[in-house]
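Q: Please design a sequence for this.
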């Protein structure tokens, strides 16, 4: 796939809210600061220039906007690609049916032609007339039966010939429709790809203007914002109500997803070296033996919704009003996800972004 993604800041991205200890198993406890707002992760020391922070906050907000638009376009690209793959497979199947139907049509035409040639060799007289000219009553009665059988067979042959011709016309029409849809999805992919590259290029251009110290402070501001959002989410006491245990498949999905920590984000990627957000979740569940939709928006539309209080490890949390991001809940108030270009697969607070809802792949 024609994809691009600026890969960097790896070590910083692995600690989005706070440092994460080594993961040993899907049921292990993750970063206690996610689950206990009374023990917050140490926040970075702010720089003394308030005006500088205000300017960087504007930069952060603009970067969020650009990467969010890139994420939406990535979902559009992935959806168009998935549909194009399905349509290509359908076109191949229709072509197979057309070839098979044409072979059948040729055979039927040959059989009809053989019947016509047989009639010609008999002098052009229809079988009924030949029987009437027979002097032997027994031959007449035997022949009459054969005539009826032959007439029925000929009638059935012609009906089958007609049906086969109609089938071929239908297949050709369906193939034409699929070609038109395929072309439309190719254009949609191209438009989404152009938008993704444009937004990422704008974001990288904006980041390139910052000094090293400003980039470091920008990352700190991102971490502070994520921590504040997580703390606000936890302050409701929601985590005390979430005590679901992972299903066997959920454990496998979590094990797969957490094993990808540290690998770069790349739009449109499904592994094994790089991932986008829904590429990670769909591949994790595929590894657990459950196929799910490719995009976060379709995961939200098609998978069963559950109450957040019933959430268990392996469930998927869908973020933002447009369902443009997804992460996998791993327990203790945390998710594993592929954040955005320039970041790596990492652990984050489940409430660090605006939650739309939760879906369960294996319900």
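A: Design:
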């Amino acid at each position: 796939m024609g994809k691009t993604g600026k890969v960097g800041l790896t070590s910083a991205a692995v600690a989005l809210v706070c440092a994460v200890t080594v993961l040993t198993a899907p049921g292990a406890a993750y970063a206690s600061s996610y689950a206990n707002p009374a023990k917050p992760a140490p926040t970075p020391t702010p720089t003394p220039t308030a005006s500088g922070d205000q300017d960087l906050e504007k930069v952060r907000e603009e970067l969020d906007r650009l990467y969010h638009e890139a994420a939406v376009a990535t979902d559009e690209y992935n959806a168009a690609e998935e549909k194009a793959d399905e349509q290509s497979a359908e076109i191949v199947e229709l072509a197979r049916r057309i070839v098979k139907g044409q072979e059948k049509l040729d055979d039927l035409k040959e059989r009809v032609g053989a019947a016509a040639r047989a009639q010609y060799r008999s002098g052009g007289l229809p079988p009924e007339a030949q029987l009437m000219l027979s002097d032997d009553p027994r031959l007449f009665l035997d022949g009459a039966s054969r005539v009826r059988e032959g007439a029925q067979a000929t009638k059935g042959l012609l009906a089958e010939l007609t049906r086969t011709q109609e089938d071929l016309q239908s297949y050709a029409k369906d193939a034409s429709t699929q070609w038109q849809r395929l072309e439309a999805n190719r254009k949609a992919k191209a438009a989404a790809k152009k938008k993704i590259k444009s937004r990422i290029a704008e974001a990288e251009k904006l980041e390139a203007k910052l000094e090293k110290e400003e980039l470091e402070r920008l990352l700190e501001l991102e971490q502070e914002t994520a921590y504040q959002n997580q703390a606000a989410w936890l302050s409701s006491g929601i985590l005390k109500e979430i005590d679901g245990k992972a299903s066997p498949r959920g454990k496998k999905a979590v094990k797969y997803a957490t094993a990808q920590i540290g690998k770069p984000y790349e739009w449109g990627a499904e592994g094994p070296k790089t991932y986008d957000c829904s590429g990670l979740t769909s591949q994790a569940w595929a590894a657990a033996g459950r196929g799910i939709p490719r995009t976060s928006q379709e995961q939200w539309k098609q998978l069963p919704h559950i109450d957040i209080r019933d959430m268990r490890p392996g469930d998927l949390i869908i973020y933002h009003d447009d369902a443009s991001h997804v992460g996998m809940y791993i327990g203790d108030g945390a998710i594993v996800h592929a954040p955005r270009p320039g970041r790596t697969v990492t652990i984050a607070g489940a409430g660090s972004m605006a939650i739309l809802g939760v879906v369960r792949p294996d319900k």
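Q: Thanks. Anything notable?
A: Confidence is low (pLDDT under 50) at residues 1-33, 35-48. The two ends are 32 Å apart (CA to CA).
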